[in-house]
Amino acid sequence: MLAAEKCFTSQQFHEIRLDDIARRARVGKGTIYLYFKNKDDLFFQTALSGFEQLCRLLARSVSEKASFLENLLTACGQINRFFEKRHELFRMMNEEDVRLCFSRGNIRERWLKKRKLLVAAVAAIMRKGFTEGRIRKDILPEVLADFFLGMLRTRLRDLEDAPRTMRRDSLIVDLFCNGATNEHTKEHRRSH
Question: Positive or negative, the Cα torsion across 73, 53, 142, 168?
């Protein structure tokens, strides 16, 4: 799957042959067919694996003892570093997400099921924010998690050329928790 990840991002999808992936992975082409139906299935499963990897990463790094803000900042940093190292996987996951939002059936259901695991991992952090009185209780934690993940996706996808200060984890968490109004900025400056 790592070989496929590299191939899928260095060439156009239609240009890639399973022979290329097999050669890069140092396996026979038949070995690929033991695990994947075809090139589409390999692409899908590789992109899908990103959700599982992120969930494991968050499970290891988010702490019951840490505060909501500490955990949110940790999650932000972990997700960002994961995709900075695995930019190809991020691109694949984005492409599948867009493609599958217009699909129906089993493949979309499998995708949404894995995606919901990541949302649930972030929603657990949001619940801690409810408990601590740090965030609104009138919005479902899963909805808040989706918004937060959307902010991270935007930073990774659209803000590569923005100044580093505009991509800091602490800025993302601050914008998520406090918004972007001038009143907040003035209050924030007074309190620090």
Answer: positive
Task: Express each pLDDT in 165-191 by its tens digit.
Answer: 777 888 889 999 988 777 655 555 555
Phi and psi at residue 172, in whole multiples of 5°? -60, -45
List the structure tokens of 20.
């290329």
User: Cα separation of 69 and 75, whole Å?
Assistant: 10
Closest alpha carbon to 2 in 42, 30, 52, 51: 42
- Tokens found for residue 85: 């190292």
Q: Classify 39-179 by CATH class.
A: mainly alpha
Model-level pTM? 0.79
Give the C-alpha separation, 128 to 187, whole Å.
24
Cα 83 to its chain centre, rounded Å, is: 7
- Segments making up each domain of the chain, as ranges: 39-179
